[in-house]
Amino acid sequence: MTEYRSENPFGVRPDGTEPFSAHAGATSSPPRATGTLESGLLLEAFDAQLFREQSETVVAKLEKHLADFSIRGLDLTDPAILVDAARALMTTEREQIAAFDENRLAAIVDLYIKTGIQVHSPGYMGRQFSGVVPLSGVIDFVSSVVNQPSSFYEAAQLPNVAEKIMAEELNAFIGWDPGSFAMVTTSGGSLANLTALLSARNRAFPGYWSEGGSALTGQLRPAIAVGDDVHYSVARAAGVLGIGDAQIVRLPLNERHQICVERARPVLDAAERRGLRVFCLVASAGTTPVGAFDPLDELAGLARERDLWLHVDGAHGASLLVSDELRHKLRGIEKVDSLTWDAHKMMFTPAPCTLLFYRNRENSLGAFRQQASYVFDEEPDIYTALDSGEKNFECTKRPMIMPLWALWAIHGRALFAQKIEYLCRLTGDVHRILEGEPDFETLHRPEANILCFRYRPPGLRDEDVHDFQVEIRNRIKFEGNFFISKVNVGEFAALRVVMMNHQVTSEHFRMLLGEIRRVGQDLLRQTHQSR
Ligand SMILES: *Cc1c(COP(=O)(O)O)cnc(C)c1O
Fold this sequence. Notes:
Its cofactor is pyridoxal 5'-phosphate. By secondary structure, this protein is of the alpha/beta class. About 40% of the residues lie in helices and about 10% in strands.
């Protein structure tokens, strides 16, 4: 230690303490500086004891944030004001490393928390990402510090093992042959959908990966079939694959907003007559607008009849599989070819954490086929057998499974099942409340935790219904007590709540209705006056 300090006169912090004092008595000494370091502040930025102090500052703020149950939505700030506020927090030092400034850190974290979407407040009912289980954030923090990119076993051993374990644990609810299915994690449901479609395309058109579109001469054009309410990421994935909008076959929905299997057949026949070869059918388990579950069992029959790959976009709703009460919504899941499952939605972990499952392991290798000898070993051994790099798009990938696995390891399945069941029950309760309110219009019976409705008080003209809902939603957002979303259901906009927070009760929902009425009545008065 002494020798080190004498060679490195810079290792002193602004408060006069020496950053490496914490190492006294430790078994290994800090690295010897070569004399090229310009400033001890570079060493300080990596100092372990300072790291703990910084973390404690931040954790105290997060504790306060998590303990704040006040009802609040979004504090929407003018971006120009926020840019100024953020700039004011930046060091003006250009030449030297600026010393750590605790006040700056505190102010950055305060601004970050305050301007964010308040997912932990009972006022938050608007979107599909959730207030995470705090412990999962703690594990994510570990991931950020140890920084183990997880596409390759040698870089991230425990994350790769945890993926294997979580795949087995969750497959218990899917029901595939444990020896032949596969799972890969990927950065978000959108990328998972793209990856699955790519694998489906490569299976149906084996020459495509090497020859590109020219492999198709003389063949029918590749096409996919989707329910009319499919998530936009699927249309984007098609675009990325060179499947034009005109090659996306939209299947009609029934009155429960599910793909109508009977009406799907003639639509698929008509597509074939137009020169399309539909190779993949995308079903949704929890559609984004209303949370509807397509009838997987029947669709699996249709897919078998026509040799279609059946992909299920369960980004939102696959998590219902872990609940004994709700699993039946995905009846037939064991017959599908692939499944997208976002843990950062209904498993309450930090984003992104998406699991892409394949019934057949070989298909998991079918999405990407290039050789890259610097990472992919031709002869897998026990270590490289766990690599996921061949199956996912990312090269450097977050060890996103760790927060999920740690929650599962420490609390078990019931943590997830109980929260999901509460949220779905709550959504059913608030639907019943709405049915008793004559000035509100209900639009569907909730299948999960998403509910759409409209405020239609007497005096509202039919031609104003759409704009009225949009304007109510915006005003509620700007008032900042509740955060809800809007979506078109049929021809007109509807108000949409997504129950992701178990601290929300039906009392909070009644308060929301009160606010909608007040805002809506103001709006009606204004339009009558201006008319
Ligand atoms: C959220 C969602 C997606 C997109 O997933 P990301 O993880 O946000 O990329 C896709 N499909 C459905 C049904 C979704 O709810």
